[in-house]
Amino acid sequence: MADVNTDAVAYAKNIHEKNYPASLTKIMTCLLALENGKMSFVDTDLKKTVVKLTHNLTKKSPNKDASFVTLIYGEDVAEDQAEEIREAVAERLGDSAEVVLIAGKQPVYYFIISVE
Q: How much is the pTM?
């Protein structure tokens, strides 16, 4: 905050930190769930999105005996967060599928989900 007459800084907080505009942050926290290249749904909660999308994929799998799910997490997902999401997916699917977690560590995606 600055005085309009003198340009003297009256208050400053974290002035040397890069901050993105709130509207850009909101856009970036919106998650698009794609199934077969088509948008399935939009959400802002990563765990909820991965659990829901994985459940949908197992239900729609041509192989009705799908028993193996691979979750590959990207660079922007912490290992403990990825493990928490893996546990939530495993709980949602119950004993019907084994859920494996792999650190893909690429900046392009949050998760890639494979159902076999």
A: 0.67
